[in-house]
Amino acid sequence: AAFTLGLTGGIGSGKTTVANLFADLGASLVDTDLLAHQLTSPSGIAIPDIIRQFGQDFIQQDGAMDRAKMREQVFGHPEEKARLEAILHPLIRSETEKAARAATGSYIIFVVPLLVESGSWKSRVSRVLVVDCPEQTQIQRVMSRNGLSEQQVRAIMAAQVSRETRLQAADDVIANEGDISQISAQVRDLHAKYLKLAESAKT
Ligand code: ATP
């Protein structure tokens, strides 16, 4: 089977920053968050099922899912959340596979924020790369990028696995602290290793 990488990390750890450095070197990125978002945008392929399951009330004027309303519907209601996920998860899976088939890079990187949390992803990729930084750094980055309070960032982090649990799932780790040249050097080394693995997976 072809070599694929799953890239993950907590909120604000630097997944996008690191993924883009790999893309600069020739890897193909499949952004699962972006694909998931597209499913429920206007004319997204999940919209008909959402109308069938939840009703037209959950669709905005522009044809997109009403995210705020859906968030309210599923918050604290595991059975409603499961009903939504039963629609979205198979579609995310088929869309990411489609994107992977169309990719032309030297290997594929699935960028999956909740890779460790969602279980099945780990078995779908050849290797897991965790982008890691201290929690205090995550908090500072997300506070300044999104204008959130420390408490709000901590609440998001509380819904994700701990730094230790995520690191335990890692085959490789990038320490995303310090300036970009330090990150680039780590990316270059790993890319060389992944190219070799991709090459030997072909034979
Ligand atoms: P999210 O989970 O919220 O999508 P992410 O893990 O993709 O985040 P990025 O968007 O790459 O993280 O980075 C979060 C913020 O921190 C961005 O504003 C980014 O510019 C900044 N950042 C990332 N890495 C570094 C670094 N090494 N030094 C300084 N700032 C950084």
TrEMBL record:
Pathway: Cofactor biosynthesis; coenzyme A biosynthesis; CoA from (R)-pantothenate: step 5/5. The keyword Kinase applies. ATP binds at residues 12-17. Its EC number is 2.7.1.24. Signal peptide: none annotated. It is found in: Cytoplasm. Its main location: cytoplasm. GO terms for molecular function: ATP binding; dephospho-CoA kinase activity. InterPro entries: Depp_CoAkinase, P-loop_NTPase. One of its GO terms (cellular component) is cytoplasm. It is an enzyme of class 2 (transferase). Keywords: ATP-binding, Coenzyme A biosynthesis, Cytoplasm, Kinase, Nucleotide-binding, Transferase. It catalyses: 3'-dephospho-CoA + ATP = ADP + CoA + H(+). The keyword Protein transport does not apply. One of its GO terms (biological process) is coenzyme A biosynthetic process. Belongs to the CoaE family. Catalyzes the phosphorylation of the 3'-hydroxyl group of dephosphocoenzyme A to form coenzyme A. This is Dephospho-CoA kinase. The gene is coaE.
